[in-house]
Amino acid sequence: MTTVATMISHSRPAISQEDLQVTADVLRSGQIAQGPWVERFEREMAAFVGVQGGVAVSSGTAALELALRALRIGAGDEVIMPSYVCAAPWLATQRVGAQATLVDIDVNTFNIDPLAARRAITKKTRAIIVPHLFGLPADLTALEGLGIPLIEDCAQTLGVTEQGRLVGTVGRLTVCSFYATKMLCAGEGGMVLSNEETLLEGIKSLREYDGVAALDPSSFNLKLTDLQASLALSQLGRFSAFQERRSFLAAAYRSTLSSKTVVCPSAPPGRTHGYYRFVIRLPHLRSNPDGLIGLISRLEQQGIHCRKPVFRPLHRYLDQSGFPHSDEADRTALSIPLYPDLTDDEVQQIQQSLVQVLS
User: 168 vs 290, which has greater pLDDT?
Assistant: First the structure.
């Protein structure tokens, strides 16, 4: 594939001088493993989300697994989740020995369809994993009404609201990811948050195995480091500025694409959008299985790295059928670069390329 010399990446972290300074200070301190910075990050992240407490862990996937274990979900239990999501929820469910029950999405929001979730509930259903995709909250009001414990997955969505409630405050447990290109960057890492102290204490006991009275074969070593926590805390202090920039970029893209045959992301009534990703839909590609890949290739030749926002729906891996909206998203959804570190010149180049390729 031919590419230009200077490629605008699909995503990249926004690392400031303050980030460099705080991590250098931690390195010089000699205390770089789990310690006071991690404890401070847990407190401040819980306050930011609006819950009682949090437990920092090594990744978002680890956070999902520990959330399931805290709810004592295991063999014989079923966990509902959308098919249109990364592999992490399925992997976490498999690791605890439970059965993943896949359901379809609302293609207009890319989030789990509450009606599909309702139809999937059985006597064995123990939880619903609710990923808030691309910066937009799922329909928490409808999902809460199903009477099944919710695990909110806020890996891609923070600081936004559904019916006036902050995401992360509705489920019994909430998980976050601090991967390099997430809304808050720690390089890697995750957190489980909750208003239930008993659940939080259970997760702490699973996170590490040292300093306990008895051996527990279910314990792990899934700790976050002070070095990572210091970077995440520095980023948390700039979250409002990050969100302001994301909203500005989203408005710029929307103005460029308003006359094109694309569906731009928007927030349904009662929900706000954080624009972790700017994911457009191209309905004319529904009947063209290879059309999206061709479009991505043409944009890459112009120096713009775009991606399918979900590499492959889970039901495709598992050879399942009956997910028409997930299939439509897989064929028609395109994620274009949007992150706080994107420069105005890069935005202009992306806009020009989109106009040319989509015309």
Answer: 168
Structure tokens at 334: 């395109």
Measured distance CA(41)–CA(325) in Å, rounded: 38
For residues 280 and 292, membership in a common domain is answered with yes
In a domain, 336, yes or no: yes
Structure-block tokens of residue 231: 């970077």
Answer yes or no: do 293 and 160 share one domain: no
pLDDT at 221: 94
**φ, ψ at 92 (rounded to 5°):** -60, -40
Is residue 252 located within the same domain as residue 110?
A: no
Does 341 fall in a domain? Answer: yes
- What are 57's two structure tokens? 């862990």
For residue 35, give the CATH number of its domain: 3.40.640.10
CATH number at residue 330: 3.90.1150.10
- Count Cα atoms within 13 angstroms, Cβ side, for 193: 29
Question: 3-state DSSP helix/strand/coil percent for the chain, to nearest 5?
Answer: 40, 15, 45
Q: pLDDT band for 5, please (50, 70, 90 cuts).
A: low
Q: What is the rounded distance in angstroms from the CA atom of residue 228 to the CA atom of residue 76?
A: 36
pLDDT in tens, 237-287: 999 999 999 999 999 999 999 777 899 999 999 999 999 999 999 999 999
Predicted TM-score (pTM) of this structure: 0.95
Residue found by looking up tokens 């720690």 in the block: 186
Same domain flag for 209 and 342? no
Torsion of CA 64, 100, 106, 88, to 10 degrees: 30
Q: Are residues 213 and 71 in the same domain?
A: yes
Q: Give the structural domain span for 79.
A: 17-236
- Given a contact cutoff of 8 angstroms between Cβ atoms, the answer to whether 109 and 132 are in contact is no
Strand 161-162 vs strand 105-106: parallel, antiparallel, or unpaired?
unpaired
Q: Are 57 and 207 in contact (CB under 8 A)?
A: yes
What is each CA distance from 271 to 116, 130, 281, in whole angstroms?
A: 20, 15, 20
Question: Which tokens go with 20?
Answer: 């460099």
Question: Are 223 and 259 in a shared domain?
Answer: no
